[in-house]
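Open question from group meeting: does this chain pack into something compact, or does most of it stay loose? Before anyone orders reagents, we agreed to write out a predicted structure and look at it together. Recording both the input and the output here so the notebook holds the full record.
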Amino acid sequence: MSSQEEQIAQRRANLGELAKLGVEIYPRRFDRRHTIVDLVGRYGERTRNELEGERIETTTSGRILSIRSFGKANFLVLSDGLAKVQVYVRQDSLPPRDFQAFKLLDFGDWVGVEGHLFRTKTNEFTIFAARLIFLAKCLVPLPEKWHGLTDIETRYRQRYLDLVVNPDSRRVFETRGRIVAALRAFMTARGFLEVETPMMQPIAGGALARPFKTHHNALDMDLYLRIAPELYLKRLTVGGLEKVFEINRSFRNEGISTQHNPEFTMMEFYEAYADYRTLMAMTEDMMATIARQAVGGDQISFGEHRISFGAPFARLSLRDAAREAASRRLGREVPHADLRRSDTAAALAHQLGLEVRSGSGAGTITGEIFESLCEDRLIQPTFVYDFPTEVSPLAKQKSDDPDTVERFELYIGGLEVANAFSELNDPEEQRRRFEAQLVSRARGNLEAHEMDEDYIRALEYGLPPTAGEGVGIDRLVMLLTDSPSIRDVILFPLMRKRE
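Structure tokens returned:
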């Protein structure tokens, strides 16, 4: 029997002995007078004399982080995940059964304690226990000596354990909660209505991505987990809701990386009578506001970089960025025209050592050159704007350049954080775009957009000039918590099944 198996057996035996004592081993509730963090915050700085003079009574609870015995003096350290407090346990100060129960406690168990506050001879802020109430047994030993859980895969697979032993992990998710709350407050303060749209959709639309597929038995129809809420939100704008937003879960059946998880969270919003430049200004304000509210300032550290969220953000044309990066890589000037034709763009990609999918047009190839050569260099907040029409089937074209749409992506710390554009509201042009996507799909591009006749019908009822944007919440949390992987900011990331 291994050491861990022996410990588990002993813990189960201790639980059995507690039951024999008549202790309720799975109690239904426990009433606290203070949480540990409140207790420490309110009284932790009181002097010995102040505590003795006031004789502050408390009832609190937490998980046992340590157990020590020195003759008749016994000590527990309890934590509620936010703060720790010491508990002084004496046999002659507890009911007999409570002290017998104390002898059967293990590291990691949950207990409640009643008593008064004092300071020990070493001036340690402590609860003098008058009652000890068993709340739950930790049957599996926690990581040794509470040094933390360092195995990355175990942290992701057993997030509950990660939260117990890694305070930094808990702080990440508390910050995430503040970020989401700040985003919601930012939008509602500006008159946006929060809505909910379907997560199961008959057509996977609103983005270029491969969907997850399921089947509804009662209706006998195939459905897709949404890859984006975009087309439903714009239907609402057709219906007269001028400002709408949704904080949503979306799903894409694609690869996993430090920046990608198949299930992710984003905020998507639409504003009538605005264009993509309107949203640039709004996004600058949004990012600075969220940073200040979530982490206390608009200057952050991300990896080795110091990043400022102060406006104005840099602006960079996508084609210019791709051309300049290619010129640097090849040591020669790349003409603008080379990114406008499929044959010259494909030849350029080949010279750069990039693989190009057969049938890709100049716009797709230019986007791949940009992603390969530019993305990870965009550390300070940068709007990359004016995308090829070919890779933006839902965005409005520029009036003087039909091969380019009014679209931007926001990059911070080398991560794409937001994607926005002036919305295409011409139903005939939208049909032509969908038909072009169907041609791409027929050539093997599984991420190409499908035809959505109902969405075109909605546009025929009239969509006013509108701009929309999606903000990647997971990546924003990565930035604001200095987390190198998206799995660090998702409580339960998807993991490969263990054999």
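Observations to bring back to the group:
Residues 165-313+380-488 form a domain with the BirA Bifunctional Protein; domain 2 fold (CATH 3.30.930.10).
The longest strand covers residues 57-70.
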